[in-house]
What we know:
Number of helices: 2
Number of strands: 2
Largest sheet: 2 strands, antiparallel
Order of helices and strands: HEEH
Strand order of the largest sheet: 1-2
Amino acid sequence: VEDTSVDPRVDGPRYEALGVRSFLSAPYVVDGRLVAYLGIGHGAPRRFEPDEMALFQQLASLPPRLIDRSG
């Protein structure tokens, strides 16, 4: 989300209260169920760069494998 104050998918005032104006997020789903959630936020509206998004996607792909192996 590039700007929480204008994106209709999010509750802008709630994010504003937390000091978050832009963010990336990813669910951790194992066997069809949500087991965790990864998010990073920024205090100003911004477009995340492709390399930042690629790194975030790599990080988001790790925990489900680790959680799945631990159970």
